[in-house]
Amino acid sequence: MSIRLRLTALYGGLFVAVGALLVAITYGLFASRLQAARPRPPDLGRLPVLPEGLGDPRRVLDEALARQRDEALDQLLTQSIVALAIVSVIAVVLGWMVAGHALRPLREITATARRLSTDNLDERIGLGGPRDEIKELADTFDAMLARIAAAFEAQRRFVANASHELRTPLTVQRAAVDVALADPEPSLRSLTAMAVRIRAATQRHERLIASLLTLARSERGVEHYEDVDFTETVQTVLVGTNTRDLKVVPRLRPAHVRGDPALLERLAVNLLDNAVRHNTPDGWIEVRVRSEGGVVTLHVANSGPAVPAEEAEALFEPFRRRSAGGHGLGLSIVAAIAAAHGGTHAAFARPEGGLEVTVSLPARVPCRATAAAPVPVRSRSG
Fold first, then answer.
1. Per its UniProt entry, which superkingdom is the organism in (predicted)?
2. pLDDT at residue number 43
3. Count of domains in the chain?
């Protein structure tokens, strides 16, 4: 049974029930009114003398009045039932029409959903009318379609870029092998050169696959949460990062979060690697960690080439490169890890060159109060 039919039956049933109740109340009030309005018996001396055999004049009069009252009540009940039946049929028809009109937007939503495919995700319902529950449902459906379309488009770009990136080292490997096979008598030097090229391409392939796996793991979310000393994690990453001749300025304050320790460490590693890779000789890197207002913030700023302000946020998209080298997955992994931990990310282009990246994560209050004193990390260069 369709919703329209069920709504019509509900409307009709409620109308018949209310109508029957109204008829019963009317019948009862009318009957009591007739009983209360019963005329006083007249003086027997004034009644005409009835022929013998007809009985007592008062009894005859009472019986006539009772018959008249019963006939009036029967007529009232019959007419009320007939009127209720006619009006009920009209109510059912009107209920069917009203239900169809009310459910028309739902049919439009259903038709749109049936027409959707990967080729027309840009189609929307665009329901007009007053702001009611069905309008809100249609707007929510449109917003969901917009998110799905954006996700499909991002997936298409990701697959296309990943395919290109995976094909490049394979092409290099095949070219190196073809060159070696083209020489009927290859020398040890040429074979060694081929092996070096294949090894470099293989390493690039491994790094790309590792980055893709990390990105997929980050987008899947955090499965097991642990208490993490985020300041210690960043400090460990700072010590293990090769900053070349760059000046590192750490400002680390105690901060604790809950999450996946490996992913949080990868977040810090990618931010530091990005700051080192896209820097200038004798440049600098500033790393700040603080916990304030229930939010842990990791701020990494670095000198470097100028970045257009409108392109800063786009750097978090997969395979977006600022320069040659790398795969363009570092900051996209940072964004995915931050989102998996319920955090946010932002990037700002510095007017004098370089980039500022800020990642905010929900803080975890440690069991024991920790003084908000800076964690000593030695500034270093080289």
1. Bacteria
2. 53
3. 3
- 300 C-beta neighbours (distance < 10 Å), count: 23
Question: Do 347 and 286 share a domain, yes or no?
Answer: yes
Q: Are strands 284-292 and 295-302 parallel, antiparallel or unpaired?
A: antiparallel
pLDDT of residue 54: 53
pLDDT along the chain (382 residues), means of 10: 84 89 87 69 53 60 76 85 90 88 82 78 77 83 83 74 70 81 83 85 77 71 85 91 87 92 89 90 93 94 89 81 66 87 91 92 63 42 39
- Structural domain of residue 168, as residue ranges? 133-220
Q: Are 273 and 262 in contact (CB under 8 A)?
A: no
> Are 259 and 291 in contact, with CB atoms under 8 Å apart?
no
Look at strands 256-259 and 295-302 and give their pairing. Answer: unpaired
37 and 164 in a single domain? The answer is no
Contacts of 176 (CB under 8 A, 6+ apart): 193, 194, 197, 198, 201
Pair type for strands 284-292 and 344-349: unpaired
Question: What DSSP letter does each residue of 208-246 carry, written as one string?
Answer: HHHHHHHHHHHHH--SS-EEEEHHHHHHHHHHHS--TTP
**What is residue 136's predicted lDDT score, i.e. its pLDDT?**
86
Residue with tokens 């920790």: 370
The three-state (H, E, C) secondary structure of 159-218, written as one string: HHHHHHHHHHHHHHHHHHHHHHHHCCCCCHHHHHHHHHHHHHHHHHHHHHHHHHHHHHHH
Dihedral, CA atoms, 178, 183, 184, 189, nearest 10 degrees?
-110
251 with 304, same domain: the answer is yes
| pLDDT given at position 180 | 80
